[in-house]
Design brief:
The chain is α/β, with parallel strands linked by helices.
């Protein structure tokens, strides 16, 4: 598949620097909590790996698959969550690790999923946020970068299921169907 028309929005260096800052914040707040980092697949896998490598305290990792996004302009409201394994988070502090929070529908669904399973405390760390598109009132404590309302890919995020391995974050610059 050919790379679509794009520009670099956030460089690998900027991402690395910001992740170190996020890791410090998370450590200051949660080092004594023995949290479970719940990685939202597929987009967050690279961010999660880089972030978690910066954390030097006890924690667990769990994975859940979420899908909600049919195209760039109209996110499907029905969020489907598929845990990748048994997730026992009763009484635990859970940190959702996301690639991007857009309307907030996915995070809302994850909150409900975790509350139903008696999580003690729920936090969110997201690499990217498109605040302009938020439809749900959410408090998100750890945000890497606010991005404009453009389709982004690279660094774990896909364009038509491709290009997740690109090291920078790209902004799509075409009207192609996404
Ligand atoms: P909601 O609306 O539930 O959406 O907050 C979150 C999910 O939508 C996907 N998403 C994107 N994926 N480029 C992508 O590759 C984008 O610009 C984009 N915006 C939203 C993403 O999977 C996220 O978890
Ligand atoms: Mg995602």
């Amino acid at each position: 598949m050919k790379l679509p028309l794009h520009k670099v929005l956030i460089t690998e260096e900027q991402i690395k620097r910001r992740i170190k800052e996020l890791a410090k914040q998370v450590t200051d707040d949660l080092a004594d909590e023995n949290p479970v980092f719940l990685v939202v697949l597929r987009g967050a896998f690279i961010f999660a790996a880089d972030l978690l490598k910066e954390l030097n305290f006890p924690y667990e990792i769990a994975f859940i698959s979420a899908s909600s996004y049919a195209d760039a302009t109209e996110p499907v409201k029905n969020v489907s969550l598929k845990p990748c394994h048994d997730i026992d988070i009763s009484g635990r502090t859970v940190v959702i690790v996301e690639d991007i929070v857009d309307t907030g529908g996915t995070i809302k669904a994850l909150y409900e999923f975790l509350k139903k399973r008696n999580a003690k405390r729920i936090e969110v760390v997201t690499l990217l946020s498109k605040k302009a598109r938020r439809k749900h009132d959410l408090k998100i404590k750890y945000v890497g970068f606010e991005v404009p309302n453009v389709f982004v890919f690279g660094y774990g995020l896909d364009w038509k299921q491709n290009f997740r391995g690109i090291r920078d974050i790209m902004a799509l610059e075409t009207n192609d169907e996404v």
